[in-house]
Amino acid sequence: MAHKGCTAFQSALIVTFVAACVAAGCDQSLFRPQSQEEEVLAEKLETAKVKTIGDVTSFMGVQRVRAYGVGVVRGLQGTGNDPQPDEYRRMALRLLKEMGIEDPAKFLASPDTAVVIVSAELPPGIQKGDPVDVEVEVPPRDKTTSLRGGYLMRCDLREYADARQLTGEGPSRMLRGRVLVRAEGPILTGLGDTSDEQKLRRGRVWNGGKAVIDRYLTLVLPSDAPKTQSRVVAERINELFHGPYRGVMRGVAEAKTPQIVWLRIPHQYEQNLPRFLRVVRQIPLSETGASRRKYRKELAVQLLNPALAVPAAIKLEALGSESVEDLRPALQHEHPLVRFCAAEALAYLGDAACAEVLATTAKNEPRLRAYALAALASLNEAICHIKLRELLESDSAQTRYGAFRALFTLDPRDPALAGQKLTDFYLHRVAPESSPLIHFSTYRRAEIVLFGEEAKLIPPFSLQAGPEFVLSSSAQSDTCFITRVTRHGRTDRRTCSLALSDILTTMGEMGASYPDAVDLLQRAARYRVVSAPVVADAVPQAPSVYEIALGGVVDILREKQKNQSESAGEDSETVDLGSTPTLFAPPGRK
């Protein structure tokens, strides 16, 4: 039995690790020294050949790393289970013993405890002490029915590797690596349809992990590169990016060896790592003086061509503040893509002239919305705050919540966000003069955002919210009764108005958890007894290259455009806007 349990655990880790290895193997192809984008540009226009950092380096460490461990959950209400004698149980007993529990076996035998598989993802660039979300799950054959109300006791999460993948020979066996994350905290479960029992066997601890290592982005030079080239690469990057980093003035890049350069993420790119990677690749290695000015002017011409605007703007951004004078005129261009590309580059260069165009783009152009909002979130200028507050009143749910997240990134205490803490979640009232919308999140942060006019529950209704709460109201009534009956039989009954903010606040005072509140919202929407739409995770995402090529915003197939291929696939390379910005990327998304 023990051997089988161990095999199941190891197999799960092996599968994930192999997938990670495959993904990691894509680094050099995703960030190749000579991109197709550059090749297309070279064929279309006879521009000066400029050698860039991307020509002599490849990226490593740009994928998320998943760490695993076994943990123990306490504080369950009789829904736990004494685990069977397998590898999970042995690891849990060892953990409890290290924590000083006198009788680990007796502790695990309680129905108020459970053994769980714990995991977390570390994004690239994370630093020691930074928080990460933690996921917990009951092992497949364990009889624990629910993790609701449980608390994950402190445990370490490690990286694992398959010996065969590392050596190329021998049997598959797991090699336990270093500790990456230390996890602990209250578990939130049931974020979804509560009829699905499996959802109660899985949960999340928001910001429940702390990184115990620094994960640097890495530029790798060829083994035959000159010994001083890594230092030259670091110097060129630091000429463009320098400033206070965690309270100390320093550069972004550090040459560690003749083949390795470590990178930190500048503050303006923290919410858009893909953009930072693309810009770094386009930093010239040695262009100075007249040749640099000629190169910049050629890029300024390309920027005005919608088919070439995306790569031209990135290359201008890679030249630094000297490009501002070339980017600003493009804000008045007739084509929306040209205006947007110029505004996006200006945002990351710290120029507030971009704000109006970015706000208009976020409002009117769905395919560019994620990038526009992330750019606004990168620039802590008053005009950006103003524009994001205006977007909270947009007609689009993605625009409204995207603006909320962007504004929260700039200033969590912004008065326009109007938030309060209720037990384990936050409740926000925003843009009170706009149309009503109810939004809840299932990752990053336990929060409910009430947009617009006060949303209300519509009587008559009788709704269950989680396992302990019942809400009811009779026809023509202007009040709501909230009753909580605990597992131990204690009853608490209160009355409040039909306003959703009042109901959620009252439930919070009665001890309702975030899953209870989410359950209420989902049931109210399902039975159509709420006066506003209810949506979840309405964050803008990056469109595919195909969508961009065929979309009305980036109509690169128009005959009147010059220097274009008849192939949409070919031309689409020049308008590849990149991956979803970090600000809006869901867990597990590259």
List low-confidence stretches.
Answer: 1-46, 245-249, 556-573
Number of helices, counting only DSSP H or I runs of 4 residues or more: 22
Beta-strand fraction estimate: 15-25%
- Main beta-sheet strand count, sense and barrel state: 6 strands, antiparallel, barrel
What does the average pLDDT come to? 84
Kindly state the number of beta strands. Answer: 22
Q: Estimate the helix proportion, in percent.
A: 25-40%
Give the termini separation: 37 Å
Shape: flat
Protein structure class: alpha+beta
Rg over CA atoms, rounded to whole Å, is 27 Å
Q: Give the strand order, joined by hyphens, for the main sheet.
A: 2-3-4-8-6-5
Describe the structure.
The structure is a single chain. The chain is of the alpha+beta class and 590 residues long. The protein contains 22 helices and 22 strands. The strands form five sheets. It has a six-stranded antiparallel beta barrel. Strands 14-15-17-16-22 form a five-stranded mixed β-sheet, with helices on both faces. Strand 14 and strand 15 (425-430) form a beta hairpin. Helix 12 (309-317) runs parallel beside helix 14 (336-348) and helix 16 (369-378) runs parallel beside helix 18 (397-410).
